[in-house]
């Protein structure tokens, strides 16, 4: 438990295209390195980054160190650069920095399927749902390819379970993009491949949240892993908590306040909110 | 050469001292405008013109300026601060008899104004009025009488302050008592100075009669015996209009001179203020002490932070800092905690150190270390600290909200 003293913020931000984020401080830079290393493992040490660290953050020694590492022929120079940045700031502990290094190594050594799934998860956390969907689909395709080659039942079962998981992930991304019908199809496919509690839970929540969803379909066959009443209650509770959280969010408060304004101001406020949401949606997409 | 000016600005009298001069110029805090012209006079000249019927007098200038009052003279409405500004300009000029000195006026001049009270409205009024002196704002400072006394006493011989030092200030308004003590044996020598108005006071008009003088003498003696009973004093100082003739108070005079040095100094606070001004012109202060008085902080304010993976104590404000100028802002990221602890360590062993915990109530829930908190401190008065904690979020990753906590803490 502690209070970390912050260094000065940059007057001008650093923009990274892969992350699609503007960074204003060293802690923010460390945060994205630690949480999204898969997106920036390679080619992160650009001259623009070094210049930003040197001039905007006032850290010429660190910038010089990064330039030196980037120029070296070491195989692990990408990781070394990211670790040098993490170590400069007291934002993460020594143990956390080492854990980050291990994660990066695991991404480099894993197969395409695991890599694409990890990439999709990172994109999902960044709210880049279209990119997340694409990555999950690639992971699913890689798993499908392996399934075709699978010789024994056990391997095949494992791959079916994985595929069901990837389809659930794709469905989650579709829901975030307001593509509920597509999400439902994916979840039903997941159920067909390998019935899981996760797919069933997501379907239950989807039907509960989307009025009319599932009614136009043919009556589905009884799921092989039906949800217990207790599980349904738990899901209902989570749904209510999520609704409550949404109601107390800043966006909802802003909308509520805008609706209470007089017509002229209301139109202006709602217009601004709409522009913001459109910008957010374009980013997610 | 830089000039150092000290002004003791009181409701009834103002003293101006230029560092290096022998005596301070003392004049009533009044201004008079000629009936038919825009010409202004101050002090005794203002009284003379008013008595002759040539001008209109305005007194209580400090109070008028503090409450943003106005005075109408000859059909023209003058703001109190405007009149105070004219008064100060003329008072400084009166204290600079040498025409050559007048030419250096405003060139790298350091000005210290001392007031008996440091209320916000008084300080603001005086700072605004002092602009008329054309001295850059960073070279104008306001201190209390206790701080002015410190500079005056410590600028003198050491034997004057080996033990406690007492000061009596007898003015039209009141009788004030001040006490100064140098505390040694600490990391840095600390000087403590406190003052208070006495209930026992008297109008200076009674000194016109023998009976009145006797009464005044017995009142002063009673005060002296009560206040100075428990300590050893190296010296006693007397200042203010009431002590212009110390022979009015023979018993009191005999008491204060008993086994100690006693001194009457007409513009003592102005002298002290000019010493403070001169000290500020030096690259390094000639007074290596921690000053604890009404215009200085009496405690170290700090918090524990982690920087470069090491925990250390970050000093937000130090004991002895002028509280009116002590303010600051830092940014912190709470790690596995949702509160900020502020440590308050009074100096002089008068109170115990304590920690004030401020929970970050109302701040949005975010993952750990994803909230940057800006901490701003300021001091509206000597014993109060104002704290503001704001949510700064974390850039575009976690946008900031309006969450803000205000706290006022006694120190």
Q: Can you give a write-up of this model?
A:
The complex is a heterodimer of chains A (285) and B (411). Chain A is mainly alpha-helical. Chain A has 3 domains: 14-109, no CATH class; 112-211 and 229-236, Alpha Horseshoe (Serine Threonine Protein Phosphatase 5, Tetratricopeptide repeat); 248-284. Chain A is built from 14 helices and 3 strands. In chain A, α4 runs antiparallel to α5, α9 (153-176) packs antiparallel against α10 and α10 (180-193) packs antiparallel against α11. The longest helix of chain A is centred in the middle third of the chain and has 24 residues, at 153-176. Chain A is globular, with a radius of gyration of 23 Å. Residues 216-220 of chain A have low confidence and may be disordered. Chain B is α+β, with helices and mostly antiparallel strands. Chain B has 3 domains: 4-143, Nucleotidyltransferase, domain 5 (2-Layer Sandwich), CATH 3.30.420.40; 147-270, Nucleotidyltransferase, domain 5 (2-Layer Sandwich); 299-410, Substrate Binding Domain Of DNAk, Chain A, domain 1 (Sandwich), CATH 2.60.34. Helix content of chain B is 24%, strand content 37%. Chain B contains 9 helices and 24 strands. Chain B has helices at 43-52, 61-66, 80-95, 99-103, 120-130, 145-154, 210-227, 250-257, 268-281; strands at 4-9, 13-18, 25-28, 31-34, 40-42, 55-58, 70-73, 76-79, 110-115, 140-144, 164-170, 175-183, 190-197, 233-239, 261-264, 290-292, 299-307, 310-317, 328-335, 339-346, 354-359, 372-381, 384-396, 404-410. In chain B, the strands form 6 sheets. Chain B has a 6-stranded mixed β-sheet, covered by helices on one side. A 5-stranded mixed β-sheet of chain B has the order 3-2-1-9-10. In chain B, β2 and β3 (25-28) form a beta hairpin. In chain B, α6 (145-154) crosses α9. Chain B is globular, with a radius of gyration of 25 Å. Classes of the chains: A mainly alpha (285), B alpha+beta (411). The interface between A and B is medium-sized, with 22 and 27 residues. β1 (2-5) of chain A pairs antiparallel with β19 (328-335) of chain B.
């Amino acid at each position: 438990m502690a209070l970390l003293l912050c260094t000065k913020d940059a007057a001008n931000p650093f923009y990274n295209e892969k992350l699609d984020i503007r960074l204003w401080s060293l802690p923010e830079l460390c945060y994205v390195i630690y949480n999204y290393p898969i997106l920036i493992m390679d080619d992160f040490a650009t001259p623009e980054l070094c210049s930003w660290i040197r001039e905007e953050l006032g850290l010429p020694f660190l910038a010089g160190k990064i330039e030196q590492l980037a120029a070296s022929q070491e195989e692990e120079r990408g990781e070394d650069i990211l670790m040098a940045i993490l170590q400069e700031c007291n934002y993460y502990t020594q143990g956390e920095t080492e854990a980050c290094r291990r994660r990066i190594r695991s991404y480099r050594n894993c197969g395409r399927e695991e890599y694409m799934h990890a990439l999709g998860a990172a994109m999902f956390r960044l709210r880049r749902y279209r990119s997340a969907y694409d990555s999950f689909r690639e992971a699913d395709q890689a798993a499908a390819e392996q399934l075709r080659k699978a010789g024994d039942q056990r391997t095949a079962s494992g791959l079916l379970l994985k595929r069901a998981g990837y389809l659930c992930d794709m469905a989650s991304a579709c829901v975030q993009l307001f593509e509920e019908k597509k999400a439902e199809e994916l979840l039903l496919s997941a159920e067909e491949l390998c019935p899981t509690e996760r797919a069933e839970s997501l379907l239950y929540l989807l039907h509960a949240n989307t009025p009319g969803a599932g009614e136009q379909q043919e009556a589905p066959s009884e799921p092989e892993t039906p949800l217990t009443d207790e599980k349904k209650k738990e899901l209902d509770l989570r749904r209510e908590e999520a609704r409550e959280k949404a109601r107390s969010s800043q966006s909802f408060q802003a909308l509520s306040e805008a609706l209470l304004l007089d017509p002229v101001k209301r139109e202006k406020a709602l217009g601004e909110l709409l522009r913001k949401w459109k910008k957010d949606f374009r980013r997610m997409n | 050469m830089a000039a150092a000016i000290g002004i003791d600005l009181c409701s009834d009298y103002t003293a101006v001292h230029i560092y290096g001069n022998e005596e301070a110029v003392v004049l009533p805090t009044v201004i008079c405008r000629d009936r038919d012209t825009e010409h202004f006079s101050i002090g005794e000249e203002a009284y003379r013109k008013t008595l002759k019927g040539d001008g209109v007098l305005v007194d209580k200038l400090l109070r008028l300026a503090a409450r943003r009052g106005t005075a109408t003279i000859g059909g023209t409405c003058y703001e109190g601060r405007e009149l105070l500004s004219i008064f100060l300009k003329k008072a400084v000029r009166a204290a600079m008899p040498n025409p050559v000195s007048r030419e250096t006026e405003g060139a790298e001049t350091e000005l210290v104004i001392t007031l008996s009270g440091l209320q916000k409205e008084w300080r603001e009024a005086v700072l605004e009025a002092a602009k008329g002196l054309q001295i850059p704002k960073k070279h104008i400072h306001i201190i209390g009488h206790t701080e002015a006394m410190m500079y005056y006493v410590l600028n003198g011989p050491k034997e004057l302050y080996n033990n406690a030092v007492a000061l009596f200030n007898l003015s039209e308004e009141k009788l004030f008592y001040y006490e100064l003590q140098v505390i040694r044996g600490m990391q840095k020598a600390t000087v403590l100075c406190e003052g208070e108005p006495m209930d026992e006071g008297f109008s200076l008009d009674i000194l016109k009669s023998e009976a009145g003088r006797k009464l005044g003498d017995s009142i002063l003696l009673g005060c002296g015996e009560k206040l100075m009973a428990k300590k050893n004093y190296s010296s006693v100082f007397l200042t203010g209009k009431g002590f212009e003739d110390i022979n009015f108070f023979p018993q009191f005079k005999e008491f204060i001179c008993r086994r100690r040095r006693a001194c009457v100094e007409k513009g003592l606070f102005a002298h002290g203020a000019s010493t403070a001004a001169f000290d500020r012109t030096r690259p390094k202060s000639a007074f290596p002490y921690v000053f604890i008085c009404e215009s200085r902080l009496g405690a170290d304010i700090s918090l524990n932070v982690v920087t470069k993976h090491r925990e250390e104590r970050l000093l937000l404000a130090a004991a002895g800092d002028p509280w009116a100028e002590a303010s600051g802002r830092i940014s912190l990221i709470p790690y596995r905690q949702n509160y900020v602890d502020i440590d308050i360590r009074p100096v002089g062993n008068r109170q115990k150190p304590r920690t004030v915990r401020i929970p970050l109530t109302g701040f949005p829930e975010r993952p750990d270390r994803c909230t940057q908190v800006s901490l701003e401190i300021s001091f509206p008065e000597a014993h109060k600290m104002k704290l503001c904690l704001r949510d700064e979020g974390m850039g575009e990753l976690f946008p900031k909200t309006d969450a803000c906590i205000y706290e006022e803490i006694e120190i």
